[in-house]
Design a protein that fits this description.
Chain lengths: ~220, ~290
């Protein structure tokens, strides 16, 4: 077996994403994000933050340009290839994408099983991340009975449960009060300290300015350092 | 191993979640499979029906006058040893016997027959054949084969045989055509009903895709579920057929059930078709 270690986690060269008949959502993006980085993605609503993350987790194909993930050029890929790449990522969606009639535990279990955790390992890990997200008391509560902020934390927990190499968080603090927002970032920092790359999109400039991490600003589809 | 266990568990959980749709899935499958097995059973018994109609049909050989017993024996052996049709019974009447029968048939003849100085009647051989498709198909060749210079005439209801053969053939085509049609119907119906059942887990499929589930992984629980439905429906349909069979057997005798081979083929085909249908139905839920 050849073990490849690429310092670069994400690389984009002249990348464009244009939705049908609309103004390009991403325009000529050139950037590199290394392993272990913590990156904030800021920008106004409609700037293209979600699109940027969607291109990375292969939900949307770039219209033009090159994309490298984990040091590998991504051009055409099969469903399986995409699935295997996604297994290395944890995504927190802006709209959560949780199963409303399942419990917090079951939502996390689904993700843990997909990547092949044994029931024991899954169980241990699920309790661990739910505890990290301060949801230990809501383990067996169905999602629809949780508050918006609690749902958001379940969404974050699901992204963490598989211990991925890359975390993409789209407005993970959107529904949270400042104190909890900070505690969420603290958790992401802890994970980042163990080597996981974190990309977090937000339009909360005040929050971002409290940290000295790399900041990418998105404006009308263009990305500025 | 853990994965397999989890996939089976989620198959049962899916079944529980859309149990109402599951009921109609199984019910429609039972109806279609039963219809098919019933057709197959009917087809098996077609032979019986034709046999009843043709019970008294026979081939009559009128031998030439003045032949000896050796010739009759030769003819009988000839008939017995053919490999074209299966003979059920051979009845030989020698000339004297035929005369006796003829004389006994009417009082007038009984009175005038002493005027004859010589028996004018020949010996005859009546052949009753086992009525089946192969025998009827081969009948012309059989007659060519047994014909020889000791036989003056061969009488058999050629038209009737041809007609029965046609009926048998067409019934077979129709039966197989209908069976094929029902399997196609099963396939189409299965795709649509299964798709409906999938709507209840649409979001789950979407999320499994997003967290990195491969197609095989996502499909497996549904494949297991489909297999379970197919087996249950098939067994119930087979039960229904057995019930019908027992009832019909009381009314008519000598009714045939399905052969082991037919049951096996029907089972394999049912499983195959439902699995293909499921595969097709899930395909629509994947992005790209
Ligand atoms: N599926 C789509 N089809 C067409 N246009 C789209 C689609 N998704 C996004 N867009 C457009 O692309 C642009 C960027 O959208 P995007 O969702 O990336 O913004 P965003 O920065 O995440 O905004 P927000 O902060 O409100 O979430 C918008 O103008 C949007 O209308
Ligand atoms: Mg967005």
């Amino acid at each position: 077996m050849i073990i490849c270690y690429h310092k670069s986690m994400i690389r984009m060269n002249h990348l464009y994403k244009t939705y049908l008949k609309t103004w390009p959502a991403l325009k000529n993006v050139n950037l590199e994000i290394d392993r272990g980085e913590f990156v904030f993605l800021t920008g106004p609503s409609g700037a293209g933050k979600t699109t940027f993350l969607e291109v990375i987790y292969l939900e949307e194909l770039p219209t033009r340009g090159e994309l490298y993930l984990f040091g590998e050029k991504i051009s055409k890929y099969t469903h399986k290839k995409r699935a295997l790449i996604r297994q290395k990522m944890g995504v927190v969606f802006q709209n959560f994408k949780l199963l409303f009639y399942k419990t917090a535990y079951e939502n996390l279990e689904l993700a843990a099983n997909v990547v092949g955790f044994s029931p024991q390992k899954a169980h241990k890990r699920i309790l661990e991340v739910l505890n990290q997200m301060k949801l230990s008391h809501k383990i067996n509560t169905p999602i629809y009975q949780l508050s918006g902020g609690e749902q958001q934390r379940v969404a974050i927990a699901r992204a963490l449960v598989t211990s991925p190499d890359l975390i993409l968080a789209d407005e993970p603090t959107g529904n949270l009060d400042p104190a909890i927002s900070k505690s969420i970032i603290k958790v992401l920092e802890q994970i980042n300290a163990r080597g996981t790359t974190v990309i977090m999109a937000t339009h909360d400039y005040d929050l971002v300015n409290e940290y000295s991490y790399r900041k990418l600003h998105v404006s009308k589809g263009k990305i500025y350092e | 191993m853990n994965k397999v266990f989890y996939l089976i568990k989620s198959a049962f959980s899916n079944m529980y979640h859309h149990r109402k749709v599951a009921f109609s899935l199984v019910l429609s499958l039972i109806i279609l499979i039963s219809a098919n097995l019933f057709l197959l059973m009917m087809h098996n018994n077609l032979q019986n029906v034709l046999e009843v109609f043709n019970k008294n049909l026979r081939i009559e050989l009128i031998l030439k006058k003045d032949i000896n017993n050796e010739d009759i024996k030769k003819n009988i052996n000839n008939i017995k040893n053919n490999n074209l049709i299966s003979v059920e019974e051979i009845v030989v009447n020698d000339a004297a016997e035929n005369l006796k029968n003829f004389v006994n048939s009417s009082e007038i003849i009984e009175k005038i027959y002493p005027l004859l100085d010589k028996n004018p009647l020949p010996a005859t051989i009546a052949i009753k054949i086992n009525f089946n498709k192969i025998s009827i198909e081969n009948i012309d060749r059989f007659i060519d084969k047994i014909d020889n210079n000791t036989i003056s005439t061969i009488i058999y209801p050629k038209e009737w045989f041809n007609k029965s053969l046609k009926i048998a053939k067409w019934s077979e085509y129709i039966a197989y055509g209908l069976i094929g049609l029902f399997f196609v119907l099963t396939y189409i119906l299965w795709i649509h009903i299964f798709k409906v059942s999938l709507f209840s887990v649409k979001k789950e499929i979407e999320i499994m895709e997003i967290v990195g589930g491969t197609k095989t992984y996502i499909k497996t629980p549904f494949v297991i579920e489909t297999f379970i439905y197919a087996v249950i429906s098939f067994l119930i349909s087979l039960g229904i057929m057995k019930y019908i069979y027992v009832g019909a057997d009381k009314l008519f005798n000598k009714i045939l059930f399905l052969t082991g081979e037919q049951i096996l083929y029907a089972f394999v085909l049912t499983v195959l078709i439902t699995l293909l249908g499921t595969e097709k139905a899930i395909g629509k839920f994947f992005k790209k």
